[in-house]
Amino acid sequence: MLKFLLVLVLATVTLFCNTATAATGYISDNVYVYMHTGPSAKFRILGSVIAGSKIEIIEKSADGAYTKITDEKGRSGWVQSEFASTELSIKERFEALQSKYQALTSDNEQLTLQSSQVNQNNSQLEQRITTLSSELAAAKREKTEIEAKLVGEDAEIQIKWLLNGGILVIVSLLIGVLITFIPSKKKNKGNWA
Asked: Quick one: which of 47, 11, 51 has its CA closest to 28?
């Protein structure tokens, strides 16, 4: 009975040790791999595991040529170590890349839409700039014309003032000269009449 308990304890410890070191792995990308009951091709074939299948790696044989696995169907057996890998299979990588591609395609579509909206806004702003530039050019021309008119009117006003002043001087001189020719009544001094 003691031996039976000891064997039972050792079997339980061995079972827990093997599952404690189990790691997720994948079958390499061959068409399929045979799973054997033991760590060699001499053992009976349990079935095959499809390429890219997710497996749980339990342990390796002493020579490292075979790896004990549990497949997706829950079967436990041995496959050649060269076909068991901890890296993602091409199938898994393809699915990840495909979902990433779809996300990037969606992002690209959104960015294309945003880009077209930005381009549309840009063209509207360029049209507005063109309109405002032409309005500014027209306002500058109008300002230049008004300044030219003001300069011309200022010159005209100065000429008018000069003429008016000259006429006033001439008229004043004429009046002064004419006043001197007007006979004045002479006062008699001493004539008491």
From this structure: 51
pTM of the model: 0.42
- How far, in Å, CA of 49 to CA of 25, rounded? 13
Q: Mind listing the pLDDT tens digit for each residue in 18-49?
A: 444 567 776 665 567 889 999 988 999 999 88
Neighbours of 34 (CB within 10 A): 15
| Predicted confidence (pLDDT) per residue in 92-107, tens digit | 788 889 999 999 999 9
Rounded Cα gap, residues 72 and 91, in angstroms: 15
Quote the tokens at residue 192.
Answer: 């008491």
3-state secondary structure the chain: CHHHHHHHHHHHHHHHHHHHCCEEEEECCCCEEEEECCCCCCCCEEEEEECCCEEEEEEECCCCCEEEEECCCCCEEEEEHHHEECCCCHHHHHHHHHHHHHHHHHHHHHHHHHHHHHHHHHHHHHHHHHHHHHHHHHHHHHHHHHHHHHHHHHHHHHHHHHHHHHHHHHHHHHHHHHHHHCCCCCCCCCCCC
Angle 12-18-22 (CA atoms, 0-180°, nearest 5)?
Answer: 140
